[in-house]
Amino acid sequence: MPSSLELPQLEQNTLPHIQSGAPPALQTQALARPLPRDVQVWELHLDQPPPNAMQVLDRSEHARALRFVHDLHRNRYIAAHAWLRRILGSYLQRAPQDLQFVIGPYGKPELSQSEQASAETGPLHFNLSHSNDIALLAVSTDMAIGVDIEALRPGLPDATLATGVLTAAELAELEQLPAGQRTAVFFACWARKEACMKALGLGLALEPRRLHVGMTVQRQQVHLQQSHVPLDLARLPCRDGYAAALAGVGGFGRVTLQSVGELSRRLN
Fold this sequence. Notes:
This protein has 7 helices and 10 strands. The protein is an alpha+beta fold.
């Protein structure tokens, strides 16, 4: 396992059409899967949805989109899930609107067993996180992963939030920091905790204040009684005003940041 996280920029490779004669909602692109233990992380701009976004969503996604009160939140939900389907469909060489998902016992979405069985090159693991207008989609071929991104919110954490999220040791570390650093450090810690909980598929069934990751951002192994193998945990670089992290069960290798820019141009 490498001692540091490699995060090179995506090379803009040519992505050939799989179904060049299909209508836009059925078009997809061939994407090379990550190598074993590697992870590809896609940054998605939710104010820039893919073409025909609503057409690739299923009935449950349509219904959930309609439940949003504000158009902004509805449109960002549609964009995130349309990009999810577009990208996973490209890896699986399947029409995005045909993909089927199941929800785990604690709310983590996964590709259905029939989707996994039909994949010629083995199962595909993914995890999606979004905050404000940015989302991250992490993809791996052979290990459970969790990704999280958090927008920094000035004035937080207050005492109630901090004690509800942090262990006693983390809270003591936070209180020793200058006031001007606490918001960024807190949300970076929160993102690392969320990534771990999502990698295990436990969500809030694992209380954040019982999960110790500390306040440092160095790559680390996290040992939990809920997993017989450690979690590999690292921060992810992201734009100013956000904090992001990636966790993988058993340890990941090379992590690459992917852009949807080229994929988006070829879908238009």
